[in-house]
Amino acid sequence: MQNPHPAPHPARILVVDDDPTVAEVVTGYLERAGHLVDRAADGPEALRCAAVRRPDLVVLDLMLPGMDGLEVCRELRGRGPVPVIMLTARGDEDDRILGLEIGADDYVTKPFSPRELVLRVESVLRRSRAGAGAQPGPLLAAAGIAMDPAGRRATKDGEELALTLREFDLLEYLLRHPGQACSREQLMHEVWGWEFGDLSTVTVHVRRLRGKIERDPGAPELIQTVWGVGYRFEEAGTA
Fold it and tell me: d(Cα 93, Cα 71) in Å, to the nearest integer?
């Protein structure tokens, strides 16, 4: 059924889940929110769909037959940047963290509210579109890092950084607030747009970001831990 009030800028979303009931419910809610939805029941089908019509966002079940969601996410990331929201079973914390480690931008645990999933989708899309529609402005630069928020490009010592959507937003926020101790709650609110959530999401993304910008991620100089508070970006970290 067509939505009488479609979204002004509908996104193409690929829903990948081998449970037809879950896929049908998720698809219905996303279509009623005004989006265009493609469906796939397994990894190979998902990769074929993404190759034919590149999605603006992927909702990806972690537990798929044959090729699991982690492998699908790696393959999609290898083809270029695309936001990914992972569906994970409640209690599978290790798998969820692994999903964030390989580049998922967000996750929702099963059983979940379809409305919650739609809100998470809209949040990730807003971040993605905000970058794409940003007006040209001054570059952000510190400690050998140069960022172009409008072009969604970042380099370290002249080398291009391969950042996910959330990693880019996290680094941009830290660069805009040098020397400021930022709590994980603050980062979750400002970068993810969440009022509440699992703070390990922030921890995992900081760890991934350190792995891409620090000379020694095990002894970070740029993104320093402020014990009992959160993190602080030090502009003179490499001096």
Answer: 18
Instruction: Name which of 133, 132, 139 is nearest 165 in CA terms.
Output: 132
Side chain identity at 82, as an amino acid letter?
Answer: V
Q: What is the pLDDT of residues 46-56, one digit of tens each?
A: 999 999 999 99
Can you read off the two tokens belonging to residue 18? Answer: 């081998």
60-111: pLDDT as tens digits: 998 888 898 888 988 887 887 788 998 887 666 676 677 777 778 888 888 8
Residues whose CB is less than 8 angstroms from the CB of residue 44 and which lie 6 or more positions away in sequence, other chains included: 66, 67
> Residue 77: which of 116, 47, 40 has the closest Cα?
47
Do residues 142 and 235 lie in contact, with contact meaning Cβ atoms separated by under 8 Å?
yes
- Could you tell me if 203 and 164 are in contact, meaning their C-beta atoms sit under 8 angstroms apart? no
Q: What is the DSSP letter of 136?
A: P
Tokens 């941009």 -> residue? 172
The residue type at 199:
L
**Contacts of residue 120, Cβ cutoff 8 Å, sequence gap at least 6:** 85, 106, 108
Q: Could you give the count of Cα atoms lying within 13 Å of 198 in the half-sphere of its Cβ? A: 14
Instruction: For residues 75 and 126, give the distance between their C-alpha atoms in angstroms, rounded to a whole number.
Output: 24
